[in-house]
Amino acid sequence: MQDTSNDKVKKIHSVLWLTACVVLSLVGIAAFIFLFVPIMNVFWFILSPIILAMYQVPAVYLYWRWKKWRKRSMDNDEMHES
Fold it and tell me: What is the DSSP letter of 79?
């Protein structure tokens, strides 16, 4: 009984991490649009991929942490099964 509730908590935790990644990614895109599209010129057009990538860094970092946590969680589950 304990294992199934623990699995549910892990699944909910995993979904929350992924949701946070998506939200951060959308916030980064919205911030880019809000800050740079109104003053867009050739200079900003050339730099826009770099600027957009910088706004995506928090989402990528969170996704990287989620993958690391998930791998560690799966490794722990395999150790407990054997």
Answer: H
